[in-house]
């Protein structure tokens, strides 16, 4: 199973925000949309950063609520690990586990086309296990 199969099922829509938006705007958008991360992109939809709930908590917890008015380019994670649609689910799991992050932007031709979360990965792995289990049960019953 590949990233493409996950996106084909869940959709290619991604919430993005520009680097000059404030941390407050980003936090409000994440709360409104009930999402755990925003991909920070430039006008051409190139990924330049990512902001997760963890980033928001870290900044406010360490530096105080006065940072809410700071621009995202001062608080976002800039070393973003991305993938393409041909990567496999096990490859994603390995990268997310090793990097200790839960959201991975999907890029094609240098531009953002989707976002995969660890929840998406787990959901698809469980569905895969269920299909294998059903096939095995059917095989056993047919012999």
Automatic annotation (TrEMBL):
PANTHER family: CBS DOMAIN-CONTAINING PROTEIN (PTHR43080:SF2), CBS DOMAIN-CONTAINING PROTEIN CBSX3, MITOCHONDRIAL (PTHR43080). Residues 7-66, 76-133 form the CBS domain. Keywords: CBS domain. It comes from the Bacteria. Pfam families: CBS. This is Inosine-5-monophosphate dehydrogenase.
